[in-house]
Amino acid sequence: MRKFGFAALGTAVVLGLAACSGGGAGSGEDPTEDGGGEAPAAEDVLVGVSMPTQTSERWIQDGEAVEAGLSDLGYEVDLQFANDDIPTQSQQIDQMITQGADVLIIAAIDGTALTGQLEAAAAADIPVISYDRLIRDSENVDFYVTFDNFQVGVEQATSLLVGLGVLNADGSEGDAAGPFNVELFAGSLDDNNAHFFWNGAMSVLQPYLDDGTLVVPSGQTDIEQAAILRWQQETAQRRMEDLLTAAYSDGTELHGVLAPYDGLSRGIITALQGVGMGPGLTEGLPVVTGQDAEIASVKLIQDDVQFSTIFKDTRLLAEQAIVAAEAFLAGEEPEANDTESYDNGVLVVPSYLLEVEVVTADNITEALVDTGYWTQEEIDAGVAD
């Protein structure tokens, strides 16, 4: 597994990590300029970091990046992975609170399942930073760091249309008129992000569905029908196999699949290859989207198997979580750049949103290699060092 040190991000990142004023990731603002509070000595601070699973490459990277950044600053870090088991995550967070954590950074498995833990954290005056996945139905969520999740869905849908030729890469109208047969996949319904991804994607796709440019032969156009519990690759593969049997066994051609995560994309592609689709075969693969720039999927994109992914630089997300943690430790409020979008059912949680980037075969080098996220050797092998 690759190391996720922050040095490769440059001096701006180091300055951002040092800030305790809550400035944006890599901002390099001087915390003394606004008369902020004084943070406790680093060696006296324990930060609890709760990640949902180690079955996804992405979450391993996030956990390691947050831990490395905090440890470099001298903090004690309790990093735990819950293996997609809600009771395990609840127990791990309980233990962090009991052990005297000063800040909690939590990427929830189920955004509605941690109310009791957050109440205990609030009673102990422990700030809670919701990491990437919004924790819902609690007034005790102090801050949220994430990417612009609605825009993720917009970009996924747009890349699907580009792959089909309906749009050009610059967003202008393409030459292809359709109709194109597509199928839609969504993430796990207990993950708040899945709804943002879906809503963003449908904001782009719905007009093309309405005018007949896009057709969903299975008829499954609701998020409840498209959802994949726990984002499991195997579940996505089974659903794609079922769709192929039900709607395509008569020779109907499938042109594209909206997939919101690379793990799902690989499951979908496996199902498609299982019925004889793929490069060099009689029938090529449809356009398949993705998310997270996982190394196995980046190789598939390079090999013209998967069409696109959404690159979310988790180094910057980890950095922003650390900036927010330092703000709380100094008695400050982290700086938010969105105070309207993320209503968790009880309150609108102040948030810091990071930008995303579409990656196709045309910009792998620029987006992922030149930025140091993956090496070309890793991409060629499809495996992280």
Describe the structure.
By secondary structure, the chain is of the alpha/beta class. The chain folds into 2 domains: 7-141 and 313-354, 3-Layer(aba) Sandwich (Rossmann fold); 149-311 and 376-381, Rossmann fold. Helices cover 39% and strands 12% of the residues. The chain contains 13 helices and 12 strands. The protein has helices at 11-18, 57-72, 86-98, 115-123, 149-164, 192-210, 223-226, 233-247, 262-274, 295-302, 314-329, 364-369, 376-381; strands at residues 46-51, 76-81, 103-106, 128-131, 143-147, 180-184, 214-215, 256-258, 287-288, 309-311, 351-354, 357-359. The strands form 3 sheets. It has a 6-stranded parallel beta sheet with strand order 2-1-3-4-5-11, with helices on both faces. Strands 7-6-8-9 form a 4-stranded parallel beta sheet, with helices on both faces. It has a two-stranded antiparallel ribbon with strand order 10-12. α1 (11-18) runs parallel beside α11 and α5 runs parallel beside α6. The longest helix has 19 residues, at 192-210. The chain is elongated. The chain starts with 10 loop residues before the first helix and ends with a helix. InterPro entries: Bact_Solute-Bind_Prot2, ChvE-like, Peripla_BP_I, SBP_2_dom. Residues 47-333 form the Periplasmic binding protein domain. GO terms for molecular function: carbohydrate binding. This is Putative sugar ABC transporter. Its main location: other.
